[in-house]
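Intended use. Records like the one below are meant for learning the mapping from a protein sequence to its folded structure. Do not use them to infer anything beyond what is encoded.
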Amino acid sequence: MTILVTGSAGHLGEAVLRSLQAPGSLVCGIDLKASLFSDAVGLIAYPAFVRRQMDGPRALIRTATCIIASSAIKALPTCGAGAACDQKKLSITSCQLAPGSVVVAFACSQPQQNLIISYSTRVHADPMELSFPIEFIVHGTAVSLQAKRAESRNEWKARVKAASTAVIPQPHFASQEPIGVTLYYLPDEPMTGDIDNIVKPILDALSAHIYVDDQQVERLVVQKFEPGIPFRVENPTEMVAVAVSGPRPALYVRLSNKPREELR
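Structure written out for the chain above:
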């Protein structure tokens, strides 16, 4: 049986892996940090990453701290011995996998207690995962990376983030998938700077929000549509049509998890 261990870079995770790595055993470790015992590095908060690591293992030993949904916490019993367990600090120590369900054992993180609590739950698709493509419009003049005032850059990035937040579920997980970005900028007057100078602040605003890091961006399309210059958009989406026909200045943003979708 293949066993997956989370928290492999920590003291407890490493000790568990050392104990399990006997001749003939199949065991792998994952953690946010790289280590000699980490076979994969990533956040266990992201379902897509966890699903990839669970392709094969039939048992899970989790030594990483777990944030449990409030609905699950209410369903858990308290520890015995006359002391209530701080249920928000529980860690999953083992998990036997079965189709459509999991049986989890929680260990109390209190050092003086060594009790095990069992709890069963059904596994459902996570509603906090983002659905692509994502489209939104940011109203206002795009700020260049070379802007002298840091406050101007920060205010623009906050505006970009707020516009994206309005069209995605809250709370949500940032995607770890490859990303394609399309930017259409419609200024209210001819631009004085280069179009590429407005890109980095926009990508930074969406980092650790829509995607984990802007290194995930594999494809980037940027185009400006200055006033007085005729142009035609074929088969525009509703959001593109609103951006093109609406008030300027405005920025149209489209994010896709299929950066090679237009390659033929």
